[in-house]
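Appendix B. Chain record.
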Amino acid sequence: MNETNPESKNVSNIQTHHLSTQANVESQLVELQMNMSHLELTVERLDEVITRQDKHIQTLQRQLQFIYKQVESQDSDSGIAPFDVIADRPPHY
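Structure tokens predicted for this chain:
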């Protein structure tokens, strides 16, 4: 009969468990690093979008201020002609 030493079996089980746990931790670390990289890329893209939108909003604000100044500078007696649905009908009607 071939008997194995119970202590060596325990050590082998502990080593196997340790390697399994270490592989699991490494796998989780790789997944976290990939998620972090994805989040960093997403933040960079969102920053670019926000910067572009901010520039666009500033341009629109300047244009609106220009229009307000033009309206205010017009003679208040003549004013802006009201929109006439019949007279201002597009030619395709």
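Further analysis of this model is presented in Appendix C.
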